[in-house]
Each structure stands twice: as structure tokens, then as C-alpha cells.
Write a structure and sequence with these properties.
This protein folds into three domains: 6-99, no CATH class; 107-283, Rossmann fold (3-Layer(aba) Sandwich), CATH 3.40.50; 311-409, Rossmann fold (3-Layer(aba) Sandwich), CATH 3.40.50.2300. Helix content is 37%, strand content 21%. α13 (311-324) packs across α14. The protein has helices spanning 20-35, 84-93, 95-99, 107-116, 118-128, 144-151, 163-170, 181-185, 206-216, 242-245, 256-265, 294-307, 311-324, 337-346, 364-373, 389-396, and strands at residues 40-41, 52-58, 64-70, 76-78, 81-82, 134-138, 155-160, 176-178, 191-197, 217-226, 252-253, 268-273, 278-283, 331-335, 353-358, 380-384, 406-409. It has 415 residues and is an alpha/beta fold.
């Protein structure tokens, strides 16, 4: 099979504008790869399959690398990837300069991202109910999330592989250690919450690291995972461009389905996940990976490339795909007349549509009351109002405990 398109060929050309710092350290990294100082290994997919299709030959920096998708399960990953020792050296030496494009940690960035960490705390509290407890962040960088958790009343600590960033956080009085999870596990500590904020995609061996996390997590604990979601591109992430998402430091590129499948294999049950991806897991029992999302993911990636950044087209296509999986009369539409008309015109069949309401004529309360009055309730309510989409979703959530099985948002993901 060919690459997603010719743009993904190994031509050494970056798709991003690079700073002189980035160019310098990309050159250092590439020299170490060519000399053999940095070593690579080929691997099987997490599902055990070796039926891997190459979809890209470079990343956004122009660095040569193979991105593959597993035909057996649909997981996207880098193969081959750096061996562990090479990977650890890369993170301590080149990674901060290529990916953060800065010589040293900065106070401004620390404060900005500490503020952003409040949304992680809110997410965990909303879906787990844990208002306090012990927290470990793996891959904490300068400790901005650890600081936010501490200020919110949690007993928080963090570990990271970058000496430079750990020392910056420690200078602020934060409980940070420069180490990896395997070494830290030997201390025998247990935690109520473990945070992997844009870290899981960097693991060279997901099964090994998730096993370590499992042993460090209390029985009733929860694991927060945020990664760049492949299907978040629909909402404008990375300019809706897969090539901008791909980067040599990311071993895995997840959709919600592929993440949940991998986590289930290693004994974690999903509490909540969306395509952005923000997710929360608890301990469960290991399960076989039964779902194959290869066809769905490849269809999505090719449509994404064809759209060339046309977000409206992508959003409508995503919505019509969702509606098409339901049976006759199982979907109710709610939104502006213009946006509902655009969706209906793209449907191959309207038999799934039970009815629709215009958001400028009916309030969420009126729609909720109507649905509650029905003996035969719709299984899915689609919300399509680009101006008030998130607010409408929030106000309609109660439908999920009242007979509706899915509340689908055209312009946002549930949080």
C-alpha cells in the first residue's frame, strides 16, 4: 500500500518553521543515528501482529522515520524505534531543544502551563470523585502539573528523565526526582492517582511501563492519560494535518479505540475517554484485543488528507459517519437550521433520523423534557451548533441517565 500521500515521503524537508536551536539539535540527533551511537530496534504491534503497513517515512521536522499502522488492530506507531538506552539519552540531551525549542526551562512557560493543569485536576475530580490523595506524575518535566496538584491539596510528586527540568522544578520546592519509573518503583510507594500527561506516546515498551504503573497504583486508584489524539485533528489540532502530528519522539499515535484496546490488554478498564484524548482508567482484568479499527482509521486518514484542512467538511463527514451506524428512528438532531440542513444533505439515507429541533427555537430544557416524555427514546442525540455547542452538551448531559445512550457533539468532544 502507498503512503498516505507524497507529502509523507522521506525527503528531509520539515513541515514546520524551525529555530536555529532546533536545527542544531536535529543535526546532532541525526549524526548520532548515522554513527550508530543511537541504536534502533524493530518491534511487533501491542496486539502481537507483525502485519504493519508503512503510512509515512518522515516526521514534521523532516527526520527520517517509519510510521506504521497495524492491519490487525489499527494501532499507529513508529517502527523501528530507539532502544531504551538511546531513548533515555535522547530525552536528556536533544529532546528539550528540539521539542521545546528553548535552551533552558523558563518561568513564563512554567506559570502558563501550571494554570492549564487546573483542567486536568477538574477532569480527574469530575470522573473519579477524588478530591485529595497521593499523586505521581510520570514525565513531569519542570513540575508545573505537580505544583498545580499540590496547590489543590494533593500530596504530589513527579519523576522525569531531564536533569535540567527536574532541577528547575526542585528549585521551586517541588518534590521531583530525575529517574525512570522502573527505578522509582523500587521505593515501594503507592499512589491514589498517577498522571501520564502526554507521556504514554513516548514509551518504547508500553506493556512494561503500564505494568510498573499498575503495581504503583492503589487498588481503588485511577490513571489519567492524555495523548495527542489522531482523531482530534478533526477539531483543528495540528492544523488538521497528520504530518504535523507525527514526530520521532512519539512511539505511538492513538485514537480513543486503540488506546482503550491497549489499556484493556494490560488490565485497565476505561472510566472515560474522548478523541482529544483525555482519559481516565482504573484497574481491571487483562482482556484480549478484539476490536480492529484499521479500516476506520485508514478511511479517516485518507479523508483527512483529501480535505486539506477543510474542518467544516471533516466535521460534517464525521457526523454523518456517526449517524449511519444507527438504525431507523434512533437519532434526534438538535442545532441551528443551517448546520442541521448541511448534515441532512450529506446523509445517504435519513431513515435513522427520528426528528430534529432548532436550537434557536427550543431550549435544552424543552428538548430534555420532550425526550423524557417519549416511550421510545432516541439512542443518540446529535448537537450541531458551532456557537453554543459545548454549553448545549453540558446542559444535555442528564439525557445519558434517562434512556439516551450517546450524546454526540459535532464541534467538541465531551470532557
Amino acid at each position: 500500500m502507498p503512503l498516505i500521500s507524497d507529502r509523507f515521503a522521506a525527503d528531509g524537508e520539515p513541515i514546520l518553521g524551525l529555530t536555529e536551536i532546533q536545527k542544531k539539535y536535529i543535526g546532532i540527533f541525526e549524526d548520532k543515528c548515522r554513527s550508530g551511537e543511537y541504536k534502533f530496534r524493530k518491534r511487533s504491534c501491542e496486539c502481537g501482529s507483525n502485519d504493519l503497513e508503512v503510512i509515512a517515512k518522515k516526521d514534521r521536522y523532516g527526520i527520517s522515520m517509519d510510521t506504521v499502522i497495524c492491519r490487525n488492530c489499527g494501532l499507529i506507531m513508529t517502527n523501528p524505534c530507539l532502544e531504551d538506552d538511546s531513548n533515555n539519552s535522547f530525552y536528556d540531551n536533544e529532546y528539550p531543544f528540539i521539542y521545546r525549542a528553548e535552551e533552558n526551562p523558563s518561568e513564563e512557560v512554567f506559570l502558563e502551563r501550571k494554570k492549564a493543569a487546573e483542567s486536568i485536576i477538574s477532569f480527574i475530580r469530575r470522573h473519579s470523585g477524588k478530591e485529595s490523595g497521593t499523586v505521581l506524575e510520570i514525565g513531569c518535566a519542570d513540575g508545573r502539573n505537580v505544583a498545580a496538584f499540590a496547590e489543590a491539596g494533593y500530596d504530589a510528586c513527579g519523576i522525569d528523565l531531564s536533569h535540567r527540568y527536574v532541577e528547575f522544578g526542585k528549585s521551586k520546592g517541588l518534590n521531583l526526582i530525575c529517574t525512570d519509573a522502573a527505578s522509582f518503583e523500587k521505593e515501594g510507594k503507592k499512589f491514589d492517582i498517577i498522571v501520564l500527561n502526554h507521556v504514554l506516546e513516548h514509551f518504547t515498551d508500553a506493556g512494561r511501563e503500564i505494568g510498573i504503573i499498575d503495581r504503583m497504583l492503589n487498588p481503588d486508584g485511577c490513571l489519567f492519560i492524555a495523548v495527542p489524539g489522531v482523531k482530534a485533528l478533526t477539531f483543528g489540532a495540528y492544523n488538521a494535518d497528520l504530518l504535523r502530528l507525527l514526530q520521532n519522539a512519539h512511539i505511538y499515535n492513538f485514537t480513543k479505540d486503540s488506546l482503550c484496546s491497549v489499556m484493556e490488554k494490560y488490565g485497565f478498564e476505561c472510566i472515560f475517554a474522548n478523541e482529544l484524548i483525555n482519559s481516565l482508567f482504573r484497574k481491571g482484568s487483562p482482556a484480549d484485543q478484539k476490536k480492529n479499527s484499521y479500516d476506520d482509521t485508514m478511511k479517516y486518514l485518507r479523508r483527512l488528507e483529501e480535505a486539506g484542512g477543510d474542518l467544516r467538511m471533516l466535521l460534517i463527514a464525521r457526523t454523518t459517519d456517526k449517524i449511519s451506524i444507527y438504525n431507523k428512528g434512533e437519532v434526534l438532531l438538535y442545532g441551528t437550521a443551517k448546520e442541521l440542513d448541511a448534515i441532512v444533505q450529506r446523509l445517504e439515507s435519513v431513515e435513522q433520523i427520528k426528528g430534529f429541533f432548532y436550537s434557536d427555537a427550543k431550549s435544552p430544557e424543552e428538548v430534555t423534557k420532550y425526550i423524557r416524555s417519549l416511550a421510545d427514546k432516541p439512542k443518540c442525540v446529535v448537537v450541531a451548533d458551532s456557537t453554543h455547542n459545548k454549553d448545549l452538551m453540558t446542559r444535555l448531559y442528564e439525557l445519558l441517565s434517562d434512556g439516551v445512550t450517546e450524546l454526540f457533539s459535532v464541534y467538541s468532544e465531551p470532557c
